[in-house]
Amino acid sequence: MAKAPRKIREPKAGSNGFDPAIVAKLVDRIEDLDDEKASEHGAYMKRCADINARRLAILDEAKARGVPTRPFKAYLKQRKLERKVEACRENLDDLVDREQFDLIRHAMGDLAELPLGEAALARVGMPGADNPGSYA
Question: Could you list the residue range(s) of the whole structural domain that residue 26 is in?
Answer without folding.
Answer: 22-67
